[in-house]
Each structure stands twice: as structure tokens, then as C-alpha cells.
Specification:
Blueprint lengths: L1 H7 L1 H9 L4 H17 L4 H13 L3 H15 L5 H8 L9 H17 L6 H12 L5 H15 L4 H18 L6
Length: 179
């Protein structure tokens, strides 16, 4: 019912979600509303409703996952150029470090694809600060290599630097790893 209603009246869907009887059910409904809105074309009402839904999620984990999902969906949205600037600030609400890193990388990739000429230095500085908070070395390795993919499209020197960081950390974690 939420899916069908959200495609036509996202504000009413948000109100319906708010009436569910448990916090977890409401959070999951808000997440569903966010996902449904994210696939649609951009309007100011949809953006306001999406932000409202994000703000209503109580669980930090569900909120982080929902925001992370937005950037994945927006990346495939025909209206991604209009959505991108509106959703980028949501990174500050992601409390799971690896999800924040992935959000930042995907946001940067969208901007590169749209030829917006994002600032590589700022991206790298922000990514390094976020990576410092990631506990798993294996996740850090994965993040370095994801950054390489997008940086290779706009700054080969930075791509090489991230590749070397990932390769060295991979060797440190598993010394028997060959190139």
C-alpha cells in the first residue's frame, strides 16, 4: 500500500507511515518512502518529503542505511543532476563510517559523470577523514579501490595514490597476497 500511495502522494504516505504502531515499523516505512521517492523525478515536494522521512527515522542504523541507499538510487535516476545537490548534505547524518565513505564516493562519481568538475582535493581529504573512522582494514581496502575507480576518470595521480594505499594495506593484512 505504501509503494502505490508514495508514487502518487508522498506527503500522504509519510503521514500513513507515522501512524504505524511500533517505532521499528515506522522506521522501515520511512525507509521505504525514501526509496520510492528517490526513484522518481525531482520536485521540491518530493525533496521536502524525503528530508522529512529521513528526519523521522529514530534508529541510527536504519537512518544511515536509508541515506546510503538514496545515493545508489539517485545514481540511476534520470533526474540525478537535480537530486545530487539536494542530497549531498545528508552525508552528515550517516553514522556508520563505511556507509558514509561509500556515500561520498558515489556522490563524487555522480558529479564526475555529470561533468560538474568536483574538487578532487576536497574529496580526498573528506574521504581520508571518514576512512580513519572505519574499523575493518578489509573495508578500508575496499573503499580505497572504490575510490580508485572514480578517481581514474578525473585524476590519474590520485587514483594511483589510492591504489597504492589499498595495495599496501592488502599486503599488510595478507602478506601472501600477490599482485
Amino acid at each position: 500500500a505504501l509503494r502505490a500511495l508514495a508514487q502518487h502522494d508522498c506527503v500522504a504516505t509519510l503521514e500513513l507511515a507515522s501512524k504505524l504502531n511500533t517505532e521499528n515499523r515506522r522506521d522501515e516505512a520511512y525507509r521505504k518512502v525514501i526509496e520510492i521517492i528517490s526513484v522518481q523525478s525531482f520536485t521540491d515536494t518530493r525533496e521536502e518529503t524525503l528530508r522529512s522521512a529521513v528526519g523521522r527515522i529514530s534508529s541510527k542504523k536504519i537512518k544511515s542505511e536509508a541515506i546510503h541507499k538514496i545515493i545508489s538510487i539517485i545514481g540511476r535516476n534520470i533526474d540525478k543532476a537535480r537530486w545530487a545537490d539536494k542530497i549531498s548534505p545528508l552525508i552528515s547524518e550517516i553514522e556508520t563510517p563505511n556507509l558514509a565513505c561509500e556515500f561520498l564516493i558515489r556522490d563524487f562519481a555522480i558529479r564526475v559523470e555529470l561533468e560538474q568538475m568536483p574538487d578532487v582535493t576536497v574529496f580526498c581529504e573528506r574521504l581520508f577523514k571518514l576512512i580513519e573512522k572505519v574499523d575493518s582494514k578489509l573495508e578500508v581496502i575496499d573503499l580505497y579501490f572504490k575510490a580508485v575507480e572514480v578517481l581514474a576518470k578525473c585524476d590519474i595521480n590520485e587514483a594511483n595514490r589510492f591504489y597504492e594505499l589499498g595495495r599496501k594495506l592488502k599486503e599488510e593484512v595478507n602478506p601472501n597476497t600477490s599482485e
